[in-house]
Structures are given as structure tokens and as C-alpha cells.
Amino acid sequence: MEPQAKDHSLITQLRKCHLRATGQRLAIMQSLIESQSHLSAEDIYLRLKQSHPTLSLSTVYKTLQVMSQMGAVITIETGTGSLKFDGNPSPHHHAVCSKCGMVHDVDFMKYPIDMNAKDVLPGFNVQSIKVFFNGVCAECARSATQSEG
Amino acid sequence: MEPQAKDHSLITQLRKCHLRATGQRLAIMQSLIESQSHLSAEDIYLRLKQSHPTLSLSTVYKTLQVMSQMGAVITIETGTGSLKFDGNPSPHHHAVCSKCGMVHDVDFMKYPIDMNAKDVLPGFNVQSIKVFFNGVCAECARSATQSEG
DNA sequence: GTGCCTGCAAAAAATTTGCAACACG
DNA sequence: CGTGTTGCAAATTTTTTGCAGGCAC
Question: pTM score, two decimals?
């Protein structure tokens, strides 16, 4: 199989928003989708540095901002200082480890929430709902147990 | 009436965690609770600067971190660059305006979610659940409507 | 009195900006 | 070919750190 024939649905989506389908934008989205995880701007930058030596961090930031506004990318805040980004388009929640900053997807149907919420506040127009489960991941819990008395 | 007799429940809570009830800590928590809103570290710093001229920003940051770990304060990330903090102890959700960064509380019972969620991930120990309604607030929606064709 | 906290300022980290050259369409 | 985008590096913004003195306990 070919590596990948450049996600045409993304190109279409970009066009729809009157944005150009540049190699950088496609590459950034690709790396997010391929990673199947949650990367920071710098994570993406470092990953792509290899294949795109001239790519700049600021382009990554700008692209992520644009993608986020387009709705192609979800912004996740882990509280560890930097934002993380998620290219998974299907609705899901996130589990965030407060020790190591790890982010994992959580099945939406496990904890469904009314996505049609319209009356959260008078006049407030809900665009998206994010549910975060904050806690300690298995690995961090393990090391914590070791230091318990 | 006196300004306020220094929140003894907070002092108790601090003691429970083997932390000292310093004037700065009480003042920072006070300003969060009194504001009934969501402030950034700098917001708090500026508010208290008047009554506590020697207070430093780094103390605000350190205190907020400590309070957050104690569970006395909830950390909210608006995506506008800086964190915001919430001193409201009762469970509730948050509506965040993606235009202006405004944060408002949303009644928990309006969109209840299982707070006993234990199986979000294998081995993941949930400590808190945060629900964010992202969208556009009434005021920003108003200005957006004006520029519509 | 002891040790946790604070305050100061500089460092580190994260994100944004300006502008000329370049590629998409 | 025109204009949206990129890349570079410096600027800005946000948060952290180290250390000496002070205060809570």
C-alpha cells in the first residue's frame, strides 16, 4: 500500500473554509491522526522536523489554531503548561492524568451527555462539549503505591 | 459588620493537609470566593495588590497550585493562554466562551454525569470530572450577528 | 525556635508577531 | 499571476525557580 494518498476529505474541508491545502497543513493533520494520540504543538513539530526540515514551530501553531476553528482538531488542556491537540473526529471524552499529563480517549457512550444542550446559559450558543476525567493513570498510581506507608 | 472573620473552614482544611494558614493563602482564597467568578493568577494578584502591596505573583501561583492539589480550587483552562481558577466548592459545570474567554458556572443537575465513574480506563483512578460547554456567549453572539450578511 | 512560606527578579516555557519569499489555485 | 502561507527570529506572555529573611505554629 502507499503511505497514504493525502487525505482528500481534509482537502475538501479546507476548501470549504476557503483555506489552502498546503503540504504543511496536510502533514500536521496527518501526524495528529496517525499518532492516534494527543500531541502538543512541539510534539508535532518534532515529529515532522524529520520529513519537513524547513517546517517552523510557528506554522504548527498557526495551523493548529486554524484547524481548531474549523473544528477539525480538538484542543485539550492538560494543565501541564502546554495545550494538546486531538485529530479524532468522533465524539469522545478524555481522561487526563494529573501526574504525568497523559491523555486518553474515553468512549462517549459510556458517559453520554446531552449534546443538544442549549440552555446552559441564557443566550449561550453551545458549539461543543468537552468532558474531562481527571485523575491518576495506572502507571502513576503504581509508583504512588510504592511510596505509601 | 466586620469585613470577614477569616474563613475558619479553610484554615481547618489547610491544617488537615499540614499546611500553614498564612495571610496570603487566606487572602487568595477569599478573593476567589468573593469574586464568585473565575480569575487568572494575575487577576488575583492585581486584586490583592491593593490590600497586600508586598504580595508577589509567584506566591499567587504557588498558592493556587497548592490549593488545587488540596481540591479547594478548580483549575479551568480557557484556551486564551492563561489558566483560570474557581473557588466554588459545589459540583458544577462550566460554560466557556471561545471568543472572549468568559467562564460561567452551569448547574450540575442540569446535565448530571456519573460522578462515580470508575471504569473510564483500566486502572485509571478518577478524582474529578470536568464538563465544559464551549461556545459563544450572548454578548459575543450579538456582535457576531451584526457582521452577518 | 524551627521550618514552611514569601518576595524578588531572573530564567524557562509557551505562544505570537512581522515581513519577505514562495507555493497553491 | 495574486494572495494566502510559510519560515525565521525576536517579542510577548505565562509560569517556574533559587535563595535569604519572616512568620505561623
Answer: 0.82
